[in-house]
Each structure stands twice: as C-alpha cells, then as structure tokens.
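Review this fold:
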Amino acid sequence: MWYAFSIMGVMPRLILYLFFQSLAIAAYAQTPQKLVDNFRRSPLPQQPIAIKQNSDLEDDGLKGKIKTIEYLIVKHRPGERDGDRRLARIEEFNDSGNRVVTKYVRDGVVASAIFYGYIDGERVSKSEGSSGGMGSGWIDPRPRDQRFEYKRRYKYKDGKLSEEVLVSNDNAVWMTYRRIYTAQAMERLVFSENGKLNQRYMHHFDKKGNEIGFESFDVFKDPKKVTIRARYTYGAFDVAGNWTARTQAYATTPEGELFEPYETIFRIITYYQ
C-alpha cells in the first residue's frame, strides 16, 4: 500500500477518526490479560550516574514525574471489527526521569527487555529476551565488554537533544541518531556504523508540542522522496498534559487526500507521589 500525507483531506475523515476512536475506547474498557513478567531485576547498576543535560522524559516531551507508562494497542482494519486491546510495551523511569527498563510484551508475556544503567561513568544499555542481543549467530572475534551492549552518548543544542550515539561494547560506533529542529518540525536522521544515512523522517508538531504527523523518506534511492505519510489525532490527555489516547492513520492515495486509521495507542501513565 502506498502511503501519503496531506493536511487537506483530513477534515473529511474526521468522522471516521472519531468512529474508530470510540470503538477503541470501548476495547480499552475490557479487562486486560494478566501479565507474565519474568524481567523484574535490572542487570545494570544505577549508581553512580552519568549526568546528561535533560532527562529521558524531557527528551521525549513528557511532563511530570512519571514512574511507568503502559502502551496498549488496538489495531484497525478496513471493513473488519477492531482487534482486541493488547499490551505491547512497558517503560519504567527513576525519580530523576531517566529510563530504567523498556519491556516488550507479546500475548500477555514480557518477551524481551532493554535495561539502562551506568558503568565506568557512561550511560549503557543491555537487552535480554527473544528479540534482544546482538542477534545474527555470527561469531565476532573482537573483544567485547560483556557487562553491557551499548554505551549511549548524547549531545544537546539550545537545550534540546541533537544527537545520540550508540557505541557497541567493542568500542565501535554502531548507530547515530540526529535531530534537527525548526519551527514546529523536527528532522530525524539515522546513520549506520559506516556513517551512511540509513533512515530519514520529518516530524510535525502543533503549537502545544504534540506531534501531528510524520513523513518517511526513501534514503537509499531518493532521500527527498516520501514513501510514508501519517497523521495523528488525539482522543484524551491526562491532568499533566500527556496524551493517553492517540490514533495513527496513513493516507491511501498518492495525493494524500484519504486516510485510513491504522491503530489507536492508549497510555496508562503512573506518577511518583
């Protein structure tokens, strides 16, 4: 399916958005499946910390002293009944606003997790479970620090996160993420270990800082060519101003005049007292 993006054409789809959101909210009221969580302890030390300019919550545009966020997804399919609400991800933060663990849930079971901590004065991460690890089965002869997978190094510009570099445990740069900010927009670039552009996105925001859509580009053939265009609509916010229901829709025509809702994500956010 070809996806496109256009602000023109969104209003005729408003009724369709609201219809899917009402169905998703009904699904949200269902009793979720009991979670099976075998990842209860972080394998990484939390002290002494490596200071970064902003907390992870601030870098993600989240407000308040958040303790946990649960992400629940309802899929939408044209002409079909909405799927059930599914818990997909759980994020836990310390009282300084930095991420401690991200857990990925499949069929009510935490299948994998990424832990965050500090080693030798650096912010580091390590994954466990079915989708974690270095992954290919190839035996790497290079010496590695088995205590972690990646060092995470950050740069800021004008108070905003501008670059995050992942350095592998063999001390080689693995991936670089860059952000370029303009008025109500952010270009996000991803570079692979050889320094070549791997992904390019353009994110758009409203005056309150809520993301209203994004564009993905074909970086391998034509970095200026848009391959996916999406829109976000919001169904609810909590008292801190963080969204708790958001529907993502993709355009279904090259002109970007028609959009079909793809999924609604609900966030259950708990805060430190």
The radius of gyration is 20 Å. The chain has a mean pLDDT of 84. The helical segments are 14-28, 56-59. Residues 14-28 form the longest helix (15 residues).
